[in-house]
Every structure is written in structure tokens, then in C-alpha cells.
Amino acid sequence: MEHRSLSRPPAAGAGALAFSGSLWRGAALTSAALTDLASPYGPLGPPDAGGVALPEGFTARVVARSRRTVTGTAFTWHDAPDGGACFPDGTGWIYVSNAEVGAGGGGASALRFGPGGNITSAYTILSGTSRNCGGGATPWSTWLSCEETAAGHVWETSPWGGPAVRRPAMGRFNHEAAAADPVREVVYLTEDEPDGGFYRFVPDAWGDLSSGTLQVLAAGAATSGTFTWEAVPDPGGSPRAVREQVPGMKAFDGGEGCHCAGGAVWFTTKGDGRVWRVDLLGGTYALACDGGVAVPGRGPLARLDGIIGSSSGDLYVTEDGGAMEIRVITPDGGVSVFLRVSGQSASELCGAAFNPAGDRMYFSSQRGTSGSPSGGITYEVRGPFRT
């Protein structure tokens, strides 16, 4: 059911952008520059009882499991947890998580934490949608939940619950992630197709996503160069798909995560294991990391999924399968493993997000040890993250 209003608490802060990270200092890297520097956190220790290997000083705990009651609540956690984000909530915070379940069984749920990290409640914030995969938070503290279907919508919903609103002006396509840019007052969008586009939505009024202009990045076939933003004639995508409407659109192989900070936006493509950097000030794009190149002792970055940034400027990238790792890319171009999950090779890591203090990271293993959507596990990692 589509609702016409969106509930927002008057005291809500600008959650997602509190830890959007500084402007990444590294220039776009060529494949030859990709290095396997020692991790800024040191080597991984042995896996813990849950199969999570972490550097010294870090610990992990399970905060939710699919089809099980969340500890301290009466709420049952959803299947196939996917994209997520954290929002300030008084002296605590809220972690929201999508459900990548099809046929109207998708949506999103929330975990509410007290100041000490204890879970105080859990609840649904969106239901009745399909394959809610990625998404993104807004500066006005709402969650954009994106449907990964051929005619998928972006849904805007509140982390505190209440009515959700469909945003058709943001286009109907195989949505993945969204990243808000308060400087240019736009929202960037990725598309999970082998020939997908990279989009931006320019709302008529910042803070109101009900109307505006959908544009797509247009450029040549090279891995770097200049670009322009071209308007999509029919964001509804019928009868012609959105990605087929602009002849000069640059195609990207399976757009996934998206992160905006300072004068740049990064996004990942899982088809070729790449991290792209769009220079919003210079009007150029280039590879930030060519993951198809094997890193000595690590192998290539396989099937990249989400990407987030920390206040230190580090980028954290999750893997869809592969070695089931979260890797960190530092501003000097080093690529290293931050954590690894063993015994879950039929799953994927997703939904990484930092709490407001930056000392806890949340993420999910979408199918857990069972390899089934019903086996999803959502984790919290705590430790001395770089600030």
C-alpha cells in the first residue's frame, strides 16, 4: 500500500552524513598502483565461535538472526538482510536493514539501541515491497529503500516507523544503492544490470523527493574521462527501459554500493570487481580500484557489493560471495582485509554501516551458514576504528 505522508520525529538528526568521511585524498588508482599494504589494523586473528576473523582489539556479536526473535524484544527478524544504515536516536542509535525477499515479501526492519549498545526494541518500517536490496540514508534522517527489480521503486521511510512513501520520480529500474549529496542537493543511484547506468536525481526542492529530474552519467567507453549528466526522458521506464533511453549513457557492469563524501562519489560494480570515483568538482570519472587485478596473497576483489566511508577517509567494501570479506581501502591506496567470515560460502556480506560514534560497525551475512534467505545473520563489530 502506498502512503501519502512520512512520519519524522522532530528531534531527528542528520544521521547518515555524520560519518560520510573526509574527501578521499588518493587520486584514482590504475591497476598497476593497486597494492596490498599491511592492514592499518594489523593481521586477522583466528575466527571466533561465530566464524568471524578480526584484527586484535575487535570483537563481533550477533544482534539478529532471520526468523528468530531479536533478544530483548518480541520481534522476529526478517529473511535475507541486505542494505543498511545507522541513525542517531537521542543518546542511542537505530540500525535499519532491508529484506531482499521477492513477491511482495520484502521491506525493511529496524534495531533500536540504547547508549550502552543494548537493543531496546525492533520493528518493521517497510513491508509489502519486493527485493529491497540496497538503499541509502538522507540528511533529513529517512531511509531510501531500493527495490532490485526491473521496474523497482525507491521507497522513503522513517527509521522510527510510520508510513512509507513511494518515490516514482526517482525512476523505475533495477535499483541498488542511493547516496545523498547535500552540497549539490542531489541523490546518486546505482543500477544492478550488466549494462546499467549511474544516475542522479535532482529534486525540485531539497528535502522533498516527490518531484524532480532523473539524469544519467554520459561518457565514452574508456575507464576514465570527462562526463555530462543527461536527462532521462521517461523515468517510468515503460515501454523502454530507463537505461536504454539516453544514447550516450556510460554502461557499468552491475552497479552496487554508493558513497558520497566531499567533492566525490564512489560506487562499486560487482561484474568486474571495480571501485569507481566520480570527481564532482572536476567533472571527471576514473577507476579508484581495479579489483580484477590479483593482489599478492589476497586474490582479486571479487563481486564487490556495498561501500561505506569512515571519518578517517577509509573506504570499506563488502563482498557478495568470494572470500566473504570486508576490505578496507585507505587514502594512500592500500587494499587489505578488515574481517573475514568463514563457513558461509553460499552467502554474501552486505549492509555495512557505522553507528554515530564510529566505534561499532553493523553488517549482515545474507544467507548465513545455511545458504538460505532464512539463515540471515546480522552482526555488530566493536573496536578501535580509525577516526
Automatic annotation (TrEMBL):
Cross-referenced InterPro entries: 6-blade_b-propeller_TolB-like, PhoX
Coiled-coil region: none
Superkingdom of source: Bacteria
Name of this protein: DUF839 domain-containing protein
